What does this fold into?
Amino acid sequence: MMQINYFRWDKKEDSSSDFFRFCCLMTKFRHECESLGLDDFPTAERLQWHGHAPGMPDWSDTSRFVAFTLIDSVKGEIYVAFNTSHLAVIVALPERSGYRWEPLVDTSKSAPFDFLSTDLPERETAIKQYSHFLDANLYPIVSYSSIILLLSPDENA
It folds into this structure.
């Protein structure tokens, strides 16, 4: 048997396979998002690049962070960020009047909190843990991790 990595693909469906669960959820999310299946690269009407601040990407050789928002006809607006630095960062999120960002994916979290699916029993509690950041339109991103946030109507607005 040829080995391609350390993941035990023969055990992928075991209930303890958090990696397989995460991959299934990410694959389902990708298939649900019209904008992640485009034939062409998205245009500026649909895609905006960000850095630690909205609309200010750092394309320098030393930058270890990039983020973007993508308009999706099914999911609305999606914020995706990658922090490849050994340092954690707190990023300012794009302001959207009447809306707030909600975490969907945070790869720094342990399962099942790495993907906050709607059927996760503790989902609301997990989101509330970041409410002080999200209320300020900020999000902490741990080193070597990535996040996906979804824009939702702000019930407090």
